[in-house]
Amino acid sequence: MFLEIKDLHVKYGNVEALHGINLHVNEGEIVSVLGANGAGKSTTLMSISGLVKASGGSIVFDGMELSKMPAHKIVAAGVAQVPEGRRVFGTLTVHENLKLGSFTNRDLAHIKQTEEWIYQLFPVLAQRRSQLAGTLSGGEQQMLAIGRALMAKPRILLLDEPSLGLAPILVKAIFKTLQEINQSGLTVVLVEQNARAALRLAHRGYVLEVGRVVLEDSAENLLANPDVQNAYLGGG
Ligand code: ATP
């Protein structure tokens, strides 16, 4: 198994936010993680990328135990996260933001090639490569955040709510590009409130409720599941 999370517990202070999550991702898949606010989706992603530490359980990626590794080693191991709220560096240009994403990569030819690939995926970033990131629209900043994560040469890409605050047409464009990125061989884990769009894109999905996995199935079955329809798809 490419990524396997077993019995993951995470605490913030004395309060446990994840009560034993089990989740796996096969190589080449897009897996969506759904759930209401506070269900533990972001915490799950941040545990994988080492930004919060597990109080119990294991996270194994391609044979490596991540739960005790520092975040920068997890990036170097091939895991990149696109954080919620994008967090691009507003006073740096598009090109400079992308360059920062490649800090774990010493292969200059690969860096150049990846930057060109990102400009192909998101042509608007190519037009704006010398523009300050703070002047980009929300959608463009999301594209840049995805591009910056790709610069780390990941084998698995974790995205936290990439559709947040974006107009439907932009969500469509970004999700189409995520599909293209996946088809290029990258495994994708997608945390989303926009359950319908996420399940249309994904191969499989998980539903979290208050720190537990309550449902795991193919995306097709989740889309057809009446409970999922009522709770997350606006009644079908
Ligand atoms: P959202 O969509 O709102 O981000 P989520 O499903 O990603 O929701 P998490 O952000 O992972 O949920 O939150 C899980 C639980 O942990 C919630 O009860 C939340 O209040 C709590 N929590 C999250 N971050 C912190 C923190 N830094 N300190 C204390 N509690 C936190």
Structure notes:
The chain is an alpha/beta fold and 236 residues long. The chain is 38% helix and 27% strand. It has 10 helices and 10 strands. The protein has helices spanning 41-48, 71-76, 94-101, 108-121, 123-127, 138-150, 168-183, 195-201, 219-224, 226-232, and strands at 3-12, 15-25, 30-35, 56-61, 64-65, 79-82, 156-160, 187-192, 204-209, 212-218. The strands form 2 sheets. Strands 6-7-8-3-9-10 form a 6-stranded mixed sheet, with helices on both faces. A 4-stranded antiparallel sheet has the order 2-1-4-5, with helices on one face. Helix 3 (94-101) runs parallel beside helix 6. The chain starts with a strand and ends with a helix. The model has no long low-confidence stretch (mean pLDDT 94). Adenosine-5'-triphosphate (ATP) binds at residues 12, 17, 35, 37-43.
Short description:
This protein has 236 residues and is α/β, with parallel strands linked by helices. The chain has helices at 41-48, 71-76, 94-101, 108-121, 123-127, 138-150, 168-183, 195-201, 219-224, 226-232, and strands at 3-12, 15-25, 30-35, 56-61, 64-65, 79-82, 156-160, 187-192, 204-209, 212-218.
Question: Mind sketching the topology for me?
Answer:
Layout: E1 3-12, E2 15-25, E3 30-35, H1 41-48, E4 56-61, E5 64-65, H2 71-76, E6 79-82, H3 94-101, H4 108-121, H5 123-127, H6 138-150, E7 156-160, H7 168-183, E8 187-192, H8 195-201, E9 204-209, E10 212-218, H9 219-224, H10 226-232
Parallel strand pairs: 3-8, 3-9, 6-7, 7-8
Antiparallel strand pairs: 1-2, 1-4, 4-5, 9-10
Helix pairs in contact: 3-6
This protein binds adenosine-5'-triphosphate (ATP).
